[in-house]
Amino acid sequence: MEDSVRQRFLSFISPVIFLVIWEVLSRTNVLDMRFFPPPSAILVTMYHMIISGELWADLSVSLYRILGGFVLGTIPGLIIGLSMGLFKPVRLLLEPLVAATYPIPKLALMPLFMLILGLGDMQKIVTIATGTFFLVLINTVAGVINLDKIYLDVARNFGASRKDYYLTVALPGALPLIFTGLNLGMGMALLLIVAAEMNGANQGIGYLIWESYDIFDLNKMFVAFIMISLLGYIFNVILNEIERWIVPWKQ
Protein backbone atom coordinates (compact mmCIF):
# COMPACT_ATOMS: atom_id res chain seq x y z
CA MET A 1 0.00 0.00 0.00
CA GLU A 2 2.80 2.39 0.93
CA ASP A 3 4.61 1.61 -2.33
CA SER A 4 1.46 2.42 -4.28
CA VAL A 5 1.06 5.77 -2.49
CA ARG A 6 4.73 6.58 -3.05
CA GLN A 7 4.45 5.79 -6.75
CA ARG A 8 1.38 7.98 -7.13
CA PHE A 9 3.11 10.80 -5.25
CA LEU A 10 6.16 10.63 -7.51
CA SER A 11 3.91 10.66 -10.57
CA PHE A 12 2.15 13.76 -9.24
CA ILE A 13 5.13 15.76 -8.01
CA SER A 14 7.16 15.86 -11.25
CA PRO A 15 4.65 17.97 -13.25
CA VAL A 16 4.21 20.27 -10.24
CA ILE A 17 7.96 20.90 -10.08
CA PHE A 18 8.01 21.51 -13.82
CA LEU A 19 5.21 24.10 -13.57
CA VAL A 20 6.90 25.90 -10.66
CA ILE A 21 10.17 26.15 -12.60
CA TRP A 22 8.28 27.39 -15.66
CA GLU A 23 6.47 30.03 -13.58
CA VAL A 24 9.71 31.31 -12.07
CA LEU A 25 11.56 31.42 -15.40
CA SER A 26 8.69 33.23 -17.08
CA ARG A 27 8.20 35.77 -14.29
CA THR A 28 11.93 36.54 -14.22
CA ASN A 29 11.98 36.99 -18.03
CA VAL A 30 14.38 34.12 -18.56
CA LEU A 31 11.62 32.81 -20.82
CA ASP A 32 9.96 35.28 -23.19
CA MET A 33 6.44 35.77 -21.79
CA ARG A 34 5.12 36.50 -25.26
CA PHE A 35 5.78 32.90 -26.23
CA PHE A 36 5.82 31.19 -22.82
CA PRO A 37 3.19 32.84 -20.61
CA PRO A 38 3.42 31.83 -16.94
CA PRO A 39 1.24 28.88 -15.89
CA SER A 40 -0.70 31.11 -13.48
CA ALA A 41 -1.82 33.32 -16.39
CA ILE A 42 -2.72 30.26 -18.43
CA LEU A 43 -4.82 28.92 -15.55
CA VAL A 44 -6.68 32.23 -15.32
CA THR A 45 -7.44 32.01 -19.03
CA MET A 46 -8.56 28.41 -18.58
CA TYR A 47 -10.87 29.45 -15.74
CA HIS A 48 -12.55 32.08 -17.90
CA MET A 49 -12.90 29.60 -20.77
CA ILE A 50 -14.52 27.08 -18.44
CA ILE A 51 -16.93 29.66 -17.02
CA SER A 52 -17.92 30.85 -20.49
CA GLY A 53 -18.41 27.29 -21.73
CA GLU A 54 -15.94 27.81 -24.58
CA LEU A 55 -13.52 25.14 -23.38
CA TRP A 56 -16.17 22.47 -22.84
CA ALA A 57 -17.66 23.14 -26.28
CA ASP A 58 -14.33 22.39 -27.95
CA LEU A 59 -13.40 19.57 -25.58
CA SER A 60 -16.69 17.69 -25.93
CA VAL A 61 -16.46 17.72 -29.72
CA SER A 62 -12.89 16.40 -29.61
CA LEU A 63 -13.81 13.71 -27.08
CA TYR A 64 -16.60 12.48 -29.32
CA ARG A 65 -14.23 12.22 -32.27
CA ILE A 66 -11.41 10.64 -30.24
CA LEU A 67 -13.57 7.97 -28.63
CA GLY A 68 -15.46 7.29 -31.84
CA GLY A 69 -12.25 6.80 -33.80
CA PHE A 70 -10.63 4.79 -31.02
CA VAL A 71 -13.52 2.32 -30.83
CA LEU A 72 -13.86 2.15 -34.61
CA GLY A 73 -10.18 1.28 -34.96
CA THR A 74 -9.84 -0.97 -31.92
CA ILE A 75 -12.60 -3.49 -32.65
CA PRO A 76 -11.43 -4.58 -36.12
CA GLY A 77 -7.82 -4.35 -34.94
CA LEU A 78 -8.56 -6.87 -32.19
CA ILE A 79 -10.58 -9.25 -34.35
CA ILE A 80 -8.17 -9.28 -37.28
CA GLY A 81 -5.15 -9.35 -34.96
CA LEU A 82 -6.45 -12.40 -33.10
CA SER A 83 -7.21 -14.12 -36.40
CA MET A 84 -3.76 -13.40 -37.79
CA GLY A 85 -2.12 -14.63 -34.62
CA LEU A 86 -4.14 -17.83 -34.37
CA PHE A 87 -4.25 -18.91 -37.99
CA LYS A 88 -1.09 -18.88 -40.06
CA PRO A 89 -2.87 -18.81 -43.46
CA VAL A 90 -4.68 -15.63 -42.40
CA ARG A 91 -1.38 -14.14 -41.25
CA LEU A 92 0.37 -15.05 -44.49
CA LEU A 93 -2.51 -13.55 -46.47
CA LEU A 94 -2.78 -10.25 -44.61
CA GLU A 95 0.75 -9.60 -43.36
CA PRO A 96 2.06 -8.18 -46.68
CA LEU A 97 -0.93 -5.84 -46.87
CA VAL A 98 -0.38 -4.63 -43.31
CA ALA A 99 3.35 -4.21 -43.91
CA ALA A 100 2.67 -2.17 -47.05
CA THR A 101 -0.02 0.12 -45.63
CA TYR A 102 1.19 0.66 -42.07
CA PRO A 103 4.11 2.97 -43.01
CA ILE A 104 1.81 5.37 -44.88
CA PRO A 105 1.51 8.48 -42.67
CA LYS A 106 -2.08 8.61 -41.48
CA LEU A 107 -2.16 12.37 -41.94
CA ALA A 108 -1.29 11.82 -45.61
CA LEU A 109 -4.60 9.99 -45.94
CA MET A 110 -6.61 12.97 -44.71
CA PRO A 111 -7.08 14.55 -48.16
CA LEU A 112 -8.44 11.24 -49.44
CA PHE A 113 -10.80 10.94 -46.48
CA MET A 114 -11.91 14.53 -47.03
CA LEU A 115 -12.78 13.77 -50.65
CA ILE A 116 -14.72 10.64 -49.71
CA LEU A 117 -16.32 11.70 -46.42
CA GLY A 118 -16.36 15.47 -46.59
CA LEU A 119 -15.26 17.81 -43.82
CA GLY A 120 -17.56 16.55 -41.07
CA ASP A 121 -16.96 14.43 -38.01
CA MET A 122 -16.76 11.13 -39.89
CA GLN A 123 -13.62 12.17 -41.75
CA LYS A 124 -11.86 12.92 -38.48
CA ILE A 125 -13.16 9.76 -36.81
CA VAL A 126 -11.94 7.59 -39.69
CA THR A 127 -8.53 9.28 -39.63
CA ILE A 128 -8.19 8.44 -35.93
CA ALA A 129 -9.54 4.93 -36.45
CA THR A 130 -6.94 4.25 -39.13
CA GLY A 131 -4.07 5.18 -36.83
CA THR A 132 -5.51 3.23 -33.90
CA PHE A 133 -6.28 0.16 -35.99
CA PHE A 134 -2.71 -0.62 -36.98
CA LEU A 135 -1.25 -0.23 -33.49
CA VAL A 136 -3.88 -2.46 -31.91
CA LEU A 137 -3.60 -4.98 -34.75
CA ILE A 138 0.19 -5.30 -34.65
CA ASN A 139 0.35 -5.64 -30.87
CA THR A 140 -2.50 -8.15 -30.81
CA VAL A 141 -0.78 -10.31 -33.42
CA ALA A 142 2.47 -10.17 -31.44
CA GLY A 143 0.63 -11.09 -28.24
CA VAL A 144 -0.98 -14.17 -29.77
CA ILE A 145 2.17 -15.33 -31.57
CA ASN A 146 4.17 -15.11 -28.34
CA LEU A 147 1.72 -17.34 -26.49
CA ASP A 148 3.21 -20.53 -25.13
CA LYS A 149 2.21 -23.23 -27.63
CA ILE A 150 1.19 -25.53 -24.81
CA TYR A 151 -1.98 -23.51 -24.30
CA LEU A 152 -3.00 -24.03 -27.91
CA ASP A 153 -2.16 -27.73 -27.66
CA VAL A 154 -4.27 -28.15 -24.53
CA ALA A 155 -7.19 -26.35 -26.17
CA ARG A 156 -6.87 -28.58 -29.22
CA ASN A 157 -6.74 -31.75 -27.11
CA PHE A 158 -9.90 -30.72 -25.29
CA GLY A 159 -11.69 -30.12 -28.57
CA ALA A 160 -11.96 -26.36 -28.23
CA SER A 161 -14.18 -24.63 -30.75
CA ARG A 162 -13.02 -21.70 -32.82
CA LYS A 163 -14.86 -19.40 -30.44
CA ASP A 164 -12.99 -20.97 -27.51
CA TYR A 165 -9.67 -20.36 -29.25
CA TYR A 166 -10.53 -16.68 -29.55
CA LEU A 167 -12.10 -16.03 -26.16
CA THR A 168 -10.40 -18.44 -23.75
CA VAL A 169 -6.93 -18.87 -25.24
CA ALA A 170 -5.80 -16.11 -27.58
CA LEU A 171 -7.54 -13.11 -26.02
CA PRO A 172 -6.53 -13.68 -22.37
CA GLY A 173 -2.99 -14.68 -23.32
CA ALA A 174 -2.46 -11.66 -25.54
CA LEU A 175 -4.01 -9.12 -23.14
CA PRO A 176 -0.72 -7.59 -21.90
CA LEU A 177 0.35 -6.69 -25.43
CA ILE A 178 -3.19 -5.78 -26.42
CA PHE A 179 -3.21 -3.15 -23.68
CA THR A 180 0.13 -1.89 -24.94
CA GLY A 181 -1.52 -1.47 -28.32
CA LEU A 182 -4.51 0.27 -26.76
CA ASN A 183 -2.26 2.75 -24.96
CA LEU A 184 -0.30 3.43 -28.12
CA GLY A 185 -3.53 3.69 -30.09
CA MET A 186 -4.96 6.26 -27.71
CA GLY A 187 -1.75 8.27 -27.95
CA MET A 188 -2.04 8.15 -31.73
CA ALA A 189 -5.68 9.23 -31.49
CA LEU A 190 -4.67 12.34 -29.54
CA LEU A 191 -1.97 13.16 -32.07
CA LEU A 192 -4.31 12.76 -35.01
CA ILE A 193 -7.26 14.67 -33.54
CA VAL A 194 -5.21 17.85 -33.28
CA ALA A 195 -4.07 17.66 -36.88
CA ALA A 196 -7.48 16.59 -38.16
CA GLU A 197 -9.23 19.50 -36.44
CA MET A 198 -6.84 22.04 -37.90
CA ASN A 199 -8.37 21.38 -41.32
CA GLY A 200 -12.02 21.92 -42.09
CA ALA A 201 -13.22 22.19 -38.49
CA ASN A 202 -14.93 24.96 -36.56
CA GLN A 203 -14.75 23.30 -33.14
CA GLY A 204 -12.39 21.07 -31.22
CA ILE A 205 -9.05 21.27 -29.45
CA GLY A 206 -7.11 21.27 -32.71
CA TYR A 207 -9.29 24.08 -34.02
CA LEU A 208 -8.68 26.00 -30.79
CA ILE A 209 -4.91 25.68 -31.26
CA TRP A 210 -5.08 26.91 -34.84
CA GLU A 211 -7.45 29.76 -34.02
CA SER A 212 -5.17 30.83 -31.15
CA TYR A 213 -2.24 30.85 -33.54
CA ASP A 214 -4.17 33.02 -36.01
CA ILE A 215 -4.95 35.68 -33.40
CA PHE A 216 -1.70 35.20 -31.45
CA ASP A 217 -3.51 34.27 -28.24
CA LEU A 218 -0.81 32.11 -26.68
CA ASN A 219 -2.68 31.70 -23.41
CA LYS A 220 -5.54 29.92 -25.15
CA MET A 221 -3.09 27.87 -27.18
CA PHE A 222 -1.41 26.62 -24.01
CA VAL A 223 -4.82 25.86 -22.51
CA ALA A 224 -5.40 23.60 -25.51
CA PHE A 225 -1.98 21.98 -24.99
CA ILE A 226 -2.85 21.36 -21.34
CA MET A 227 -6.17 19.78 -22.25
CA ILE A 228 -4.49 17.40 -24.69
CA SER A 229 -1.94 16.51 -22.00
CA LEU A 230 -4.68 15.96 -19.43
CA LEU A 231 -6.64 13.78 -21.81
CA GLY A 232 -3.54 11.71 -22.49
CA TYR A 233 -2.88 11.31 -18.78
CA ILE A 234 -6.49 10.48 -17.93
CA PHE A 235 -6.84 7.92 -20.71
CA ASN A 236 -3.52 6.36 -19.70
CA VAL A 237 -4.63 6.06 -16.07
CA ILE A 238 -7.98 4.56 -17.09
CA LEU A 239 -6.40 1.99 -19.40
CA ASN A 240 -3.76 1.10 -16.80
CA GLU A 241 -6.42 0.62 -14.12
CA ILE A 242 -8.48 -1.57 -16.43
CA GLU A 243 -5.36 -3.57 -17.27
CA ARG A 244 -4.51 -3.94 -13.58
CA TRP A 245 -8.00 -5.30 -12.98
CA ILE A 246 -8.20 -7.59 -16.03
CA VAL A 247 -4.56 -8.71 -16.18
CA PRO A 248 -3.52 -9.00 -12.50
CA TRP A 249 -0.80 -11.54 -13.27
CA LYS A 250 1.18 -8.91 -15.17
CA GLN A 251 1.70 -6.79 -12.06
From TrEMBL:
InterPro entries: MetI-like, MetI-like_sf. GO terms for biological process: transmembrane transport. SUPFAM superfamilies: MetI-like. GO terms for cellular component: plasma membrane. The keyword Oxidoreductase does not apply. It is found in: Cell membrane. CDD domains: TM_PBP2. It is a multi-pass membrane protein. Gene3D superfamilies: MetI-like (1.10.3720.10). The keyword Manganese does not apply. Belongs to the binding-protein-dependent transport system permease family. PANTHER family: ABC TRANSPORTER PERMEASE PROTEIN MJ0413-RELATED, ALKANE SULFONATE ABC TRANSPORTER-RELATED, MEMBRANE SUBUNIT. This is Taurine ABC transporter permease. The lineage of its organism: Bacteria, Bacillati, Bacillota, Clostridia, Eubacteriales.
